[in-house]
């Protein structure tokens, strides 16, 4: 994906103009009333697909379970949650190539991205409806979260964070590049030109790294287990600040390395928006992350990142990303509750 900053001195390229027009004509930037809080979720996020979703370790009902914990325990009123729109084909073309979107019309291609081979045997119209539609809703939520973060200081999309997907390639359970889309929309619609991605999922965020290769407007801090998927050495070249962990890294060591990384990031780049990819696959016992971080460690991690943003008065949006154990939903809910109790976010509306 070419960067607008790379346009010739004669002005924006036709591709840049087309992208700009697509962004301006998008309906995803809803006006959200003050009665709502900047927590974004739809029941359409959750995937129920003839039981086939159980063939992948990802908990495809995680997003709904997070919200149930928050609402049933009285921390968040259901009618205060923001419902996003589905990202349309024109929205997706802001970053994705037509050829990539066409490839998703083949069930085999989607099965490869999702790492669930039986999906290849299912008619594509059903794959679109049961699998890709929920992801397009989450993409809409990620894009909207940037607008809400600028308006309210913070936003949490209870979904998204598909950091292995780039403009031309999906993988690792990531079919759409919501992080890249969210940032491109923010550049054009929110009048900002400096974004920091703090990617603390257990896996390297190779999708957004490829999309923002050599784009000086985006600073990437990526802290991940170097001994697991995706082993994308080409994409590593585009990480501004990488912290490579080893399998078995424990909580205290992890949090110490995070503290040091945030100190360095603060001296290197002054963003106008932070995109925080908050994967919970760092949890001890996660079959894919292979780190040994306690639930309390995850809560502490999220608090550190939000405090980093609040202390510098930088709007922050959080995406929930990877997490492959049933316990992930409870830990994410507990983290959001802690952020509220520490007054780093406010789960009551502006009208209260």
UniProtKB/TrEMBL annotation:
- What biological processes does GO assign it? epigenetic regulation of gene expression
Q: What are the protein's UniProt keywords?
A: Chromatin regulator, Hydrolase, Nucleus, Repressor, Transcription, Transcription regulation
Q: What class of enzyme is it?
A: hydrolase
Q: Which residue range or ranges hold the Histone deacetylase domain? A: 56-337
Question: Any idea of its EC number?
Answer: 3.5.1.98
- A Pfam cross-reference name: Hist_deacetyl
Q: Which InterPro entries would you find in this protein's record?
A: HDAC_classIV (IPR044150), HDACs (IPR000286), His_deacetylse_dom (IPR023801), His_deacetylse_dom_sf (IPR037138), Ureohydrolase_dom_sf (IPR023696)
Q: Which GO terms describe its molecular function?
A: histone deacetylase activity; histone deacetylase activity, hydrolytic mechanism
Q: Does the keyword section mention Hydrolase?
A: yes
A Gene Ontology term for the protein's cellular component: histone deacetylase complex
Q: Which domain of life is it from?
A: Eukaryota
The reaction(s) this protein catalyses:
N(6)-acetyl-L-lysyl-[histone] + H2O = L-lysyl-[histone] + acetate
Q: Which cofactor does it need?
A: Zn(2+)
Tell where it localizes.
Nucleus
Q: Does the keyword Repressor apply?
A: yes
Q: Which residues form a coiled coil?
A: none
| Main location class | nucleus
UniProt function note: Responsible for the deacetylation of lysine residues on the N-terminal part of the core histones (H2A, H2B, H3 and H4). Histone deacetylation gives a tag for epigenetic repression and plays an important role in transcriptional regulation, cell cycle progression and developmental events. Histone deacetylases act via the formation of large multiprotein complexes.
What is the name of the protein in this document? histone deacetylase
């Amino acid at each position: 994906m070419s960067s607008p900053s790379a346009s010739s001195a004669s002005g924006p390229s036709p591709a840049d103009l087309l992208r700009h027009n697509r962004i301006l004509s998008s309906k995803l930037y809803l006006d959200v009333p003050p009665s709502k809080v900047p927590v974004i979720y739809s029941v359409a996020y959750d995937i129920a697909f003839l039981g086939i979703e159980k063939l992948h370790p990802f908990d495809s009902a995680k997003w709904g379970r997070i919200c149930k914990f928050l609402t049933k325990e009285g921390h968040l009123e259901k009618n205060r949650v923001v419902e996003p729109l589905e990202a349309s084909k024109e929205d997706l073309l802001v970053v994705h190539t037509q050829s990539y979107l066409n490839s998703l019309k083949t069930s085999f291609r989607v099965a490869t991205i999702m790492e669930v081979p039986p999906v290849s045997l299912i008619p594509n119209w059903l794959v679109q409806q049961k699998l890709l539609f929920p992801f397009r809703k989450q993409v809409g939520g990620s894009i909207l979260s940037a607008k809400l973060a600028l308006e309210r200081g913070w936003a949490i999309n209870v979904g998204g964070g598909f950091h292995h997907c780039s403009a031309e390639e999906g993988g690792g359970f990531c079919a759409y590049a919501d992080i890249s889309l969210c940032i491109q929309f923010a550049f054009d619609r929110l009048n900002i030109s400096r974004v920091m991605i703090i990617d603390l999922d257990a896996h390297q965020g190779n999708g957004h790294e490829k999309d923002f290769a050599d784009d000086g407007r985006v600073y990437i801090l990526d802290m991940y287990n170097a001994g697991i998927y995706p082993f994308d050495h080409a994409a590593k070249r585009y990480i501004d600040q990488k912290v490579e962990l080893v399998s078995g890294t424990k909580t205290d060591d992890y949090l110490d390395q995070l503290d040091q990384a945030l100190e360095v990031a603060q001296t290197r780049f002054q963003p106008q928006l932070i995109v925080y990819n908050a994967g919970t696959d760092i949890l001890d016992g996660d079959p894919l992350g292979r780190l040994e971080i306690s639930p309390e460690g995850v809560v502490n991690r999220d608090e550190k990142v939000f405090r980093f943003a609040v202390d510098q008065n930088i709007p922050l949006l959080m995406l929930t990303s990877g997490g492959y154990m049933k316990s992930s939903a409870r830990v994410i809910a507990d983290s959001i509750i802690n952020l509220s109790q520490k007054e780093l976010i406010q789960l009551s509306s502006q009208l209260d």
